[in-house]
Amino acid sequence: MEKYHSELQTKKLNIPAMLAGKKVLVAVCGSIAAYKTAFFVRLLNKAGAEVKVIMTHSAKSFITPLTLSTLSKNPVLSTFEKDDSGEWNNHVDLGLWADLMIVAPASANTLSKMAHGACDNLVTAVYLSARCPVMVCPAMDLDMYQHPATRTNLQKLKDYGNIIIDAESGELASGLSGEGRMAEPEHIIEFVEEFFSRSQSLKGKKVLMTSGPTHEAIDPVRFIGNHSTGKMGTSIAMELVSRGAEIQFVSGPTGHYPKHPSVQVTKVTSADEMFEASKAYFADMDIAIFTAAVADYKPKTVANSKIKKQENDLDIILAPNPDIAKELGAVKMNQFTIGFALETDQEEDNALKKLEKKNLDMIVLNSLRNEGAGFAHDTNKVSIYDKHNNVSHFELKSKAEVAKDLVDLLERALNE
Ligand code: C5P
Question: What is the domain range of residue 126?
Fold first, then answer.
């Protein structure tokens, strides 16, 4: 305790108000590390953030709401009901209020609930309804931290796009020593400041994205389609909005599209519709990212009524669809355009040809030969080529992490 006291004293004069105007919601779980959250809340406050605190029931055994409400300068909530007044603590409002939610300390129990969508207290309800980015600071005994169940839960949270601030090594409350201590408040605040400075990096940038499959009608009940799920496009959109971009997201028929106030989703079915919607937005955009798996062909004619089964072979004549990336690449002004190439053979050659043919600035290659890459998986393994012959090869990662790598490269290219 002494240590934090003196560190706070020394920081007293020189903490810049890096977080002025930022709204941070701190969720506290039952862990001995909860005492550090008091210091963290104070640091947030010193840095100019507006702070609200919510707690699980068991967190109150470790630190009092009075301490946290005094430090945060706001009432601390831990239940859905306001005392005996019959009034409701609206978890949706809390989630919408925050620019950032930080679960610190995050116990193994709450991590598990977050990973599985359980929602039996105010903290987990706010987590599920929050639209803002979420940081998670695990704190637990070293064996709990290493248990495959905890590792899997943390990976799930990463895949949801949450930012994990890894536990640190040292003496633990159990008397054992190892990894599991919640990150020190000074380290967490560095993550928060870095997050907010990054979150401005694409502010004002308008991005067109295409995502998902297209369905090309054969008759009123049948179509030609593909296995694209829209997961990669959704992850990229979430990464872009976390850095301040605004997105026109043109999505083919899939359940995966981003739900965020900075994303406007236009739902389409066919390649023709996707082209029309994309064309309408393109001129006004700074960036276009073509993640959609657009059908190359469509039935030349669409039957007006359901085609009846017959004894003989059925021929369907296919006509080419517009190549959206190529058409827009041909008319682009200053837009930075990124395409995807999903290849099964001669991957690099094909990707580079597409980069040129579609007048792209960058192309993301994923090979179907790599296990865990491509459609429907939650992971992807990509190589990213740009028009200046630079290439970056990446390991198999979650699609959220691939999105971060891609947007990092995009940002670097925009700043060159
Ligand atoms: O030529 P290929 O379909 O492999 O090119 C893939 C890239 O081109 C992707 O970025 C995809 O979204 C885009 N594309 C498109 N319109 C098409 C076909 C592909 O925008 N008709």
Answer: 2-198
